[in-house]
Write a structure and sequence with these properties.
By secondary structure, this protein is an alpha/beta fold. 49% of the residues lie in helices and 13% in strands. It contains 10 helices and 7 strands. The protein has helices at 15-32, 59-70, 103-118, 132-138, 140-146, 150-161, 175-182, 191-199, 201-207, 209-221; strands at 7-12, 35-40, 42-44, 52-53, 77-83, 123-124, 127-128. The strands form 2 sheets. Strands 1, 2, 5, 6 and 7 form a 5-stranded parallel sheet that branches. A two-stranded antiparallel sheet has the order 3-4. Helix 1 (15-32) links the parallel strand 1 (7-12) and strand 2. Helix 4 crosses helix 8, helix 5 (140-146) packs across helix 8 and helix 9 packs across helix 10 (209-221). The longest helix is centred in the N-terminal third of the chain and has 18 residues, at 15-32. It is globular and about 50 Å long. The relative contact order is 0.14.
Length: 223
């Protein structure tokens, strides 16, 4: 009996995202029928030295990596795990976001533009609204078990913003900046992924509509 193989590849922004893919998203998506692989975006290729990985500051480098991955015919779906916060201003869709759009419509506009620019139906871009730490805000109770005293601050911000995906006011008050201000010992690669894993995908989906919509889209792509 032959087992179906449906490969879903993640191009991710950095180590924290890679850990979340490994420990949280891959097991969940495997239950849906996907075989998950991943890679961290390469930001520098110095002559004679190792590649530098992590961070999305220039769209041309990311675009090149996406095109290289799409040459791999074994990838059925290529998706991304990048922050919408501080996304490269030269990326497709960033310069022509219509004014006055709500955050979910803004990020959807850019994702649609990215997909159109790639011109390959296998590319399903996903930008986290607004950062990976958005999901830590959703996991306020869980991260508070790791770092006592943090839960109340995060819950208050979520309440005032109207939901975890709305917690973003600028370079000094984006989700990661808030958490580090409240708790300087917070570890992006340890505390964040642990809290998200403890929260679980279903609860994360219930609190983060944009995240939920992306997973629904991936499910719809399965043969």
């Amino acid at each position: 009996m032959t087992t179906s193989y449906h490969r879903l590849h993640f191009l991710v922004e950095g180590q924290s995202e890679e850990i979340v893919v490994n420990n949280v998203l891959a097991p969940y998506l495997a239950d849906s029928g996907w075989t998950v692989t991943k890679s961290i975006v390469t930001t520098k290729r110095p002559a004679g030295g190792p590649n530098h990985r992590g961070g999305v500051s220039c769209w041309s480098k990311v675009d090149r990596e996406i095109k290289l991955l799409l040459r791999d015919s074994s990838i059925e779906i290529l998706t991304t795990l990048f922050d919408f916060y501080a996304f490269p201003p030269d990326a497709p869709g960033m310069a022509d976001i219509p004014p006055g759009l709500a955050p979910h419509d803004r990020v959807a506009h850019v994702e649609t533009s990215l997909a159109a620019a790639a011109a390959d139906r296998r590319f399903v871009p996903h930008l986290i609204l607004h950062e990976l730490e958005t999901w830590v805000f959703a996991a306020a109770e869980q991260v508070g078990c790791l770092l006592p005293g943090l839960t109340e601050r995060l819950l208050e911000d979520v309440h005032l913003a109207g939901g975890p995906e709305f917690v973003n006011d600028g370079p000094d008050t984006a989700p990661s900046k808030r958490i580090l201000n409240y708790c300087p010992q917070y570890s992006k690669t340890n505390d964040g992924p642990l809290a998200i894993a403890d929260l679980g995908i279903e609860e994360l989906r219930s609190q983060c509509p944009h995240f939920d919509s992306w997973l629904e889209g991936l499910r719809d792509r399965l043969p």
